[in-house]
């Protein structure tokens, strides 16, 4: 008698990817030859500004749960303009088996491309374990406006474990590479004076723009818990802490009016 081969383990959770390709249409606008989503990641075209094409990422089901692996991939061709946003906040929820969830974002911008990636806040729910990775690769003439907002817990509850990494290259050279871990299980000190200092909301606004080559931004402090850091890129990074998501958005919106578009 021969024994049956061992069963191949089936990955737990949902695997889904949303893919976007934006190209210049030759008439001063932007076309979307590729716009496809899977599972909880549904894409809808919206009205953009001027030559810009707008795309909204709509959650078709609750995600990410523990064990899920979601990904968003956006490629912006030379001369194209794309505004990418989410329709609502993203809630990181615990799964049944205790596995971490993953959410990957990959942004690729060719020469003279422009992308605004402005998602709504990511809420780390109690008991969840989420690992977020955002990677952006820019050609030298490209422009990027990127906002991240993270909230630890819903109203009246503590947050889950959140690990987040943002990596940006320009012309093949590193521009920014930073990592954050907070919540239960994160390295000690994440909530201390050198970390979040008791705040529940944290965020950043990254602006990469060739205009900063001629007029670089100056380092500055915006209120008590927000700072402006010029990057050698040319780019500027605004980081902020706040007691809640509303105050955080106010801080980042003010920074956007000053440094973004």
Automatic annotation (TrEMBL):
Pfam families for the chain: UreD (PF01774)
Localization, UniProt: Cytoplasm
InterPro entries named in the record: UreD
Keywords: Chaperone, Cytoplasm, Nickel insertion
Job description of the protein: Required for maturation of urease via the functional incorporation of the urease nickel metallocenter.
Summary of subunit composition and partner proteins: UreD, UreF and UreG form a complex that acts as a GTP-hydrolysis-dependent molecular chaperone, activating the urease apoprotein by helping to assemble the nickel containing metallocenter of UreC. The UreE protein probably delivers the nickel.
Assigned protein family: Belongs to the UreD family.
Protein name: Urease accessory protein UreD
The organism of origin for this protein: Streptomyces goshikiensis
Top-level taxonomy: Bacteria, Bacillati, Actinomycetota, Actinomycetes, Kitasatosporales
Gene this protein is translated from: ureD
């Amino acid at each position: 008698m021969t024994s049956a081969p061992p069963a191949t383990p089936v990955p737990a959770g949902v695997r889904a990817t949303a893919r976007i390709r934006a190209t210049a249409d030759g008439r001063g606008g932007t076309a979307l030859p590729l716009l496809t989503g899977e599972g909880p990641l549904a894409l809808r075209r919206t009205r953009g500004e001027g030559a810009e094409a707008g795309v909204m990422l709509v959650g078709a089901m609750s995600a990410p749960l523990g064990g899920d692996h979601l990904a968003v991939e956006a490629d912006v061709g030379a001369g194209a303009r794309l505004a990418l946003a989410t329709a609502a906040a993203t809630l990181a929820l615990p799964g049944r088996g205790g596995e971490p969830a993953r959410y990957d974002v990959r942004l690729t911008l060719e020469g003279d491309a422009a992308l605004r990636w402005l998602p709504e806040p990511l809420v780390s729910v109690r008991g969840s374990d989420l690992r977020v990775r955002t990677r952006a690769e820019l050609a030298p003439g490209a422009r990027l406006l990127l906002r991240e907002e993270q909230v630890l817990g819903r109203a009246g509850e503590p947050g889950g474990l959140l690990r987040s990494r943002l990596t940006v290259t320009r012309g093949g050279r590193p521009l920014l590479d930073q990592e954050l871990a907070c919540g239960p299980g994160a390295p000690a000190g994440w909530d201390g004076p050198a970390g979040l200092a008791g705040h529940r909301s944290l965020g950043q606004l990254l602006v990469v723009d060739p205009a900063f080559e001629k007029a670089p931004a100056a380092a500055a402090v915006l209120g008590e818990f927000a700072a402006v850091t010029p990057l050698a890129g040319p780019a500027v990074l605004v980081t902020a802490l706040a007691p809640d998501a509303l105050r955080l958005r106010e801080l980042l919106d003010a920074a956007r009016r000053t440094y973004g578009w």
